[in-house]
DNA sequence: TCTGCCATGTAAGCCGTTACATGATTTT
DNA sequence: AAAATCATGTAACGGCTTACATGGCAGA
């Protein structure tokens, strides 16, 4: 679960769990949810489908309406669906929260699959991500303070903007965590050993609108 | 100026223009300005120094205080400085603003070198970047609107956050542009042909603090 | 008819991180 | 005395983007 390819595979598997799809469609959907900006290329998508097929986690759908390679509508589209093994594997992966789950790219993918993740795991991932971002924020603040005098205005402004962005992401995560806890963050007793921040609590009413009771497993 | 390596080379060249430095130091500085998060690895830095040396744009400094490979302090550190050709080349690159200059990574590097860039080029790069981000923002809004119904709360929340971030970057750029123009944006007459936005103007007093009169060329 | 979108793949090139190799100096 | 930091490189592996190959269908 640490390599890029594995993260992509998880995204594909998770998307196919919702509905069977063919490659082209999948690309559009993933591009939409993971950021329309970096629409992943076929050069990585199709190999991913191949890997998952070889692993027996997904399989081509063969229905009466789509005879294999026949001259039915358009070109022979290959629709993929999860196999039973795929369902089991997905459930297993979604059930535990390793540190790899809060890496930059993995976190986004895991977050888009929160609807199929149980509440405890969701919380643990959010907290892990939060800790990671706070750590990063401290680094930023430190280096900004250290080099402030030596920087020209533009470099300083860039640093300021970067800091602002990081602070906002931390605040966003805190909102999400509060919402998940349901407690709306009265006061949490984290030991200050690990660099836990004093909780600035910029959090407003910006939390997740309406969280459904998600199906516990998949 | 489009490949990643060229962008990195520019960053290195620009940094060395300010002060001669050795590789290890360079890595720290670049890591600090371009984001302490992704401290670039030696695996890309040293090859870059090699390329620039081969191209004759930088050269090792040989001073009396640092005899080559002798047992003077520490290990033989190789300090690099710009050659005359390097200075000329840097000035040329910084003088013009191609579309490649507002790509994600290139923009950051160009921005950190704004102190050595003339005002007109600065403005053109900021405007190019702004147009790019507005375009991206429209894409985001479009796909968000299209898929809103089909999304679960978490995916929707992620999309909302992404949109918010993009809006903030656009606002940031507008602030910078206004500051550069000196006019503080009374009303600019852009034709609506190109998808120019109605200028929401969230811009407050968040602009660049004090922009110095930068040395015009390097 | 031609452009553009749908649709699936493959191959190559680029490049960046990671790990390894080496060794001195400073700090704990 | 060990650990961390300074310091410079090389090699290999991973993997993503880009371009190419192919072809059907729909609308202008």
From TrEMBL, chains A, B:
Residues 181-218 are annotated as: Disordered. Residues 12-92 form the Transcription regulator PadR N-terminal domain. InterPro entries: Metal_resp_DNA-bind_regulator (IPR052509), Tscrpt_reg_PadR_N (IPR005149), WH-like_DNA-bd_sf (IPR036388), WH_DNA-bd_sf (IPR036390). It holds the Pfam family PadR. It comes from the Bacteria. This is PadR family transcriptional regulator. The lineage of its organism: Bacteria, Bacillati, Actinomycetota, Actinomycetes, Micrococcales.
